Amino acid sequence: MLQDKNEKRTPLEELGEFALIKHLTKDFKPTRPSTVKGIGDDATVLDFKGNKTLISTDLLIEGVHFDLTYMPLKHLGYKSVIVNLSDICAMNALPTQITVSLAVSNRFPLEALEEFYSGVATACRIYGVDLVGGDTTSSTKGMLISVTAIGEGDSKKITYRSGAKPHDLLVVTGDVGGAYLGLQVLEREKEVFKVNPQNQPDLEPYTYIIERQLKPEARKDIVELLEKLEVKPTSMIDISDGLSSEILHLCEQSGVGCNLFEDKIPLDPTVIATSEEFKMDSTMIALGGGEDYELLFTIDQKDFDKIKGNPNLTVIGHMIEKEEGAHLVTRANTKIPLKAQGWNSFND
Amino acid sequence: MLQDKNEKRTPLEELGEFALIKHLTKDFKPTRPSTVKGIGDDATVLDFKGNKTLISTDLLIEGVHFDLTYMPLKHLGYKSVIVNLSDICAMNALPTQITVSLAVSNRFPLEALEEFYSGVATACRIYGVDLVGGDTTSSTKGMLISVTAIGEGDSKKITYRSGAKPHDLLVVTGDVGGAYLGLQVLEREKEVFKVNPQNQPDLEPYTYIIERQLKPEARKDIVELLEKLEVKPTSMIDISDGLSSEILHLCEQSGVGCNLFEDKIPLDPTVIATSEEFKMDSTMIALGGGEDYELLFTIDQKDFDKIKGNPNLTVIGHMIEKEEGAHLVTRANTKIPLKAQGWNSFND
Fold first, then answer.
1. Given a cut of 60, is residue B1 above it in pLDDT?
2. With 80 as the cut, is the pLDDT of residue B343 above it?
3. Percentage of residues in chain B having pLDDT higher than 90
4. How far away is chain B from the Cα of A51, in angstroms, using its nearest Cα?
5. Position B6 in a domain
6. Which chain B residues have a beta carbon less than 8 Å from that of A45?
7. Could you give the angle at the alpha carbon of B101 between the alpha carbons of B96 and B105, nearest 5°?
8. What angle do CA A205, A211, A214 make, to 5 degrees?
9. CATH no. for residue B126?
10. Which residue of chain B comes nearest to A152, CA vs CA?
11. How many CB atoms lie within 10 A of CB A311?
12. pLDDT class for B193, splitting at 50, 70, 90?
């Protein structure tokens, strides 16, 4: 639908498995000092010289996690990397390498895979990470992507989900809810397209939220900002499933409760306008909508002055004793228990 | 066919995604000093205290890499781990942790996943590796497995594919060709079963080769043996695609040629007998049949005395100048160029 049709179609059988991997990865040259040996042996060799090694992995399945009707392959390559880099950033550490494995059915020509890898290459370049390995094979149906991100961290800075204490401030980066609403717009246009393929959608008013869905970013800049501000968060997580679900993860693993203030949740004007258009409550979208890949963290109150006024950071609540529970404090000053509305792929 | 049908079937929707991961991994407790933080945060944290980090990853797809008709899920869980541990061993390093990601369609009940994870647990226990992360999600078709193995190595011992020199000896561990022939027997029995489901196959004569196919081992013992013998191989690879293909990898990456002697290739008596039964040439099976997960390596001639007579190790040839090429020297003393008969999943 939004995707260009490639003219040239080289069947994958023409290359064979080894030649395919070689072809797709030929322009990926290691740049990080910690990459001792990248692609081309039985395993990758990395040297973190006494720093900690961080590992995170994700599986993305066509028809479950992405829809190629409106997801250009280049964006998919980019996003597949980003969601994993985000997990490393959520440990207050820096991503350094990735491996990318891909399984595709015969309906994908070589040019499609090149598109995908060009998105991977863009992410590698922007985030300064090396592609160091992976696997390319055939699937019996559709496209499957498995990415492993590797990072490096100083043990004094690595931040877990489990360190929040009562009275800590709850901070979120950027704004939330956009990626979910972008998906709603794309799904709506897909339905329109099914009925009338000639229809040219005007997506201009939705540029911001569609970009949030198709081309999210990992907040590596925040890890660097916190270092500069000399703030060590007490707990941290990234927002992949929605604000509500992530707050509950921090509460559960830290053994604390939380008050989240509805009027503090940062929303982009496009999110507010599009929520109204869809007759949905923007707070509910912020709480339940996932894939924003912003960071959510807690800081000690003594660090408040250091982050105050920073446009990237919004204090949205504070942690309390576990027994008091986790609540949304509404604009009308009523308290509603937070519920995990995390996305469950088995309930489709 | 060879698999027990489970009586109890708990649909995966009953648990939801977070509860499912928690349930399946609840008995996996970190045991390695290098595992700082295992399952349960955005990323795993490992500490190799100055040693190198090794990473290897593989994607296994139902209908491409395995057939659940004759592959019990417990064995599949075991084998999925082994094939990745083997890659770490092939660097002359020791595997320490794994991540396992799984995507399954709704036809798999919880009990099937428990079976799979019990195989993963057995491999973890036997090889002393920790399960430290992964992902569990739904697929639109069949079962997909992505495993990443992590290892630790001393930079003085890590062995690449690229270090072989002319006059080095070519050594293989164990015996080869069994896993491929085991697969042929299982495929034959599957066809018989389709025609006559009442038929009880007598697989007893094929026990060794079926086990080679369904329950391979990673040669971690060889890495330890080489350390004890004070032998540092000059190059090393594991045999996943067949002896011929792996020898050519060593030759290409080291810039050398090779003479492989047909009469030295170690074959189990079951391999010889079953080859005759299938009217196949046992040497061709050893050269082209994959999945043995033995190690293939080269050593300097001065180390020959250290490995001589060890029942685990067989010298099967020697490396020569690149210009002389890579050949099989037959029993009749004729030279045949080695060809890569590696398995190509896009040619099925």
1. no
2. no
3. 73
4. 7
5. no
6. 52-54, 91, 153, 158
7. 155
8. 135
9. 3.30.1330.10
10. B45
11. 7
12. confident
Average of per-residue pLDDT across B103-125: 92
Task: Report the residue from A16, A46, A101 with minimal CB separation from B146.
Answer: A101
Residue tagged 């072809």 (tokens): A23
- Do B130 and B85 form a contact (C-beta atoms < 8 A)? no
Residue A139: Cβ-neighbour burial (10 angstroms; 0-12, 13-18, 19+): buried
Within a domain: residue A158? no
Q: Does A144 touch chain B (CB under 8 A)?
A: yes
Interface test with A, best of B34, B36, B59 (most A CBs within 10 A): B59
Residue A225 is part of which domain span? 169-342
Residue ranges of chain A with pLDDT lower than 70?
A: 1-7, 341-348
Which region among A240-244, A275-279, B46-50, B312-316 has the lowest average model confidence (pLDDT)? B46-50
Question: Which helix (H) or strand (E) covers residue A37, if one does?
Answer: strand A35-37
Cβ-defined contact of A146 to B59 (cutoff 8 Å): yes
Provide the CATH number for the domain around residue A285. 3.90.650.10
Instruction: Give the one of A55, A102, A340 whose C-beta lies nearest to B99's C-beta.
Output: A55
User: Strand A94-104 and strand A169-173: pairing?
Assistant: unpaired
Number of residues written out for chain A: 348
Q: Which of B153, B177, B194 is the last residue of a domain?
A: B153
Residue B348: the pLDDT is 39
What is the interface pTM, i.e. ipTM, of the complex? 0.88
Question: Does residue B249 lie in a domain region?
Answer: yes
Nearest by CB to residue A42, choosing from B36, B49, B238, is B238
pLDDT digits (tens, 9 = 90+) for A95-115: 999 999 999 998 888 899 999
CA angle B72–B73–B76, rounded 5-degree value: 90
Note whether residue B347 is domain-resident.
no
pLDDT of residue B221 exceeding 70:
yes
Q: Chain A partners of B90 at a C-beta cutoff of 8 Å?
A: 42-43
Contact flag A134-B43 (C-beta cutoff 8 Å): no
Residues B78-96 pLDDT 10s: 999 999 999 999 999 999 9
Number of structural domains in chain A: 2
User: Which residue out of B51, B146, B294, B347 would a mutagenesis test of the A interface target, given it has the greatest number of A Cβ atoms within 10 Å?
Assistant: B146
